[in-house]
Amino acid sequence: MKTKREDAEVHFQYAEEIQEKLKNDTFAQWLGIELTEIGPGTAIAEMKITENMLNAHGTAHGAALFAIADFVFAVACNSYGKTSVGLSVNIGYLAACQKGDKITAIASEIKRNHRTSWYEVRVENGKELVAHVSALSYRKNDYFVGGDE
């Protein structure tokens, strides 16, 4: 039987294992998303807007911006080694991105309790905020690191 572990303690004890697990997101890899930073309840990733990410107007498709925001949200809420899944995500698109833009998504934990956690994600293109996300996750009982500790 597992004993109750402190989230931050698990994060730091298993930081490399957590990072390797979360970097193994094949959809994010397919999009060219690069995880650049992970901390307790935080994550940063970058992605270059390519030709196949453009909409009919020639600007970045909202789904591309949502994908990187959703990825850093997933990394941030799973950063404690405890399996967490998204419950709700609201995104606001604030500015257009162009082909070649390098966008950065930054997830920050707002509040966390035993079962849920709330996050803010900022998506920026180096010049301005292009999308803002509020996200809620459900925290399961299971840890995906540390075996049966």
UniProtKB/TrEMBL annotation:
Residues 57-129 form the Thioesterase domain. GO terms for molecular function: acyl-CoA hydrolase activity. It holds the Pfam family 4HBT. This is Phenylacetate degradation protein. Keywords: Hydrolase. It comes from the Bacteria. It comes from Fictibacillus phosphorivorans.
